[in-house]
Design a protein that fits this description.
Layout: H1 27-52, H2 56-82
Amino acid sequence: MTEEAHPDPARKPRRLRYQKQPEPGSVGTLIGVTLTLTLGTGVVLVLLSGALTPSQGARASTRLQWAERRAEIDRAVEQAQAEGKLHP
């Protein structure tokens, strides 16, 4: 049989040590909870801001599309004025 099934009787069992937990209303608990909530909120805000913010390339592309659209409108207005369809 194994030693685990029949432990050595001369060997004393070890006592497990445990740390005393702070009381629920103590300052240490309040500080710990406050720090945990603050860090958790910070992580969530950082992740959301990164997910909701468009990338630099997307902003540049959008600006270029609007510039092209404005140029197209300006050309249409100039053409309409040249044909006499639109008065300045």
